[in-house]
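Hi F.,

I've been meaning to write this up properly since the lab meeting, where we talked about keeping a consistent format for the predictions we share between groups. The idea is simple: the sequence comes first, exactly as it goes in, then the structure tokens exactly as they come out, then a line or two of notes. No screenshots and no reformatting. I'm using this chain as the first example so we have something concrete to point to.
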Amino acid sequence: MSDREFSVVQFFPDGTYEYVRRFVTAEEAINVAKSYTTRPAAKIGVIQRVIITDGGDCTVFEWKYGEGIVFPTLEQMQHEH
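Output, unedited:
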């Protein structure tokens, strides 16, 4: 797998979504996801969900409005070490 195979997607209350980055490095995907989950639109619920997918279209990160990071869970991250 290439190191440039991550995408970031934001979801809106009406069920629509938008790819905000495609085919970027893991580092860029993480930075973009952090930006989208902490901006004012996320704080008031305009952004409902943000995910990062890998090159195989598997979700490797998920944030939800009102819940925070839901995947991976803290327990899952602790088991990785």
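Notes:
The chain has one domain: 6-79.
The mean pLDDT is 93.

If this format works for you, I'll send the rest the same way.

G.
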